[in-house]
């Protein structure tokens, strides 16, 4: 319990994830004691912890606190859920911990991880992406590579992930591999494009444009030309050299002032 107190008071997490509820009773884990303290001392002070995973679900009086739906790991929704949910996954396909004998093919690629992030966020979920450190707390190079590349991608495209909400469409109605999010604060819709079209023309069926619609690409200052089509919008993507691409994986189109914003 002292460790949990320190974690909550010092770092103020939004979610406390406890595991192993099937192994023993709430009394064994002292779940009731911790939840009572959390509710009386922290939530009353405006602490932003919205849910205590699993431990709270064991205790009948605390089940109302569990607003986040826990989903089996590597879960892909593919559709919008009516409640909050989390996709829990680990970069190592076979383990949540460190494996000395793991081979490269047993780790998800950065393309896999970004694709999973885009789909999860577009469907209203939160992505928990786990790595397994070594026994002495070191992060293996393969994990560092994935995390740093994810950070680079978010530096360019984080606007389409953070402070967003699901749009009225989660994926496009015409082109495959397109996932949508919408800004909570502005009139912007984001189309996350997992593959670059071979003809440089992106065709989207979900957006309805107006005379005031603007189209941009995150990470690029090059003007983006677009046209109304019979099935939605056709976007003439900018021509980039490999060195001038905004990012290497999954590009984001930002559309402002669509007719069907909501």
From TrEMBL:
One of its GO terms (molecular function) is alpha-L-fucosidase activity. GO terms for cellular component: lysosome. Its EC number is 3.2.1.51. The keyword Signal applies. GO terms for biological process: fucose metabolic process; glycoside catabolic process. Residues 1-159 form the Glycoside hydrolase family 29 N-terminal domain. Residues 170-255 form the Alpha-L-fucosidase C-terminal domain. Keywords: Glycosidase, Hydrolase, Signal. SUPFAM superfamilies: (Trans)glycosidases. It is an enzyme of class 3 (hydrolase). It comes from the Eukaryota. Belongs to the glycosyl hydrolase 29 family. Alpha-L-fucosidase is responsible for hydrolyzing the alpha-1,6-linked fucose joined to the reducing-end N-acetylglucosamine of the carbohydrate moieties of glycoproteins. This is alpha-L-fucosidase.
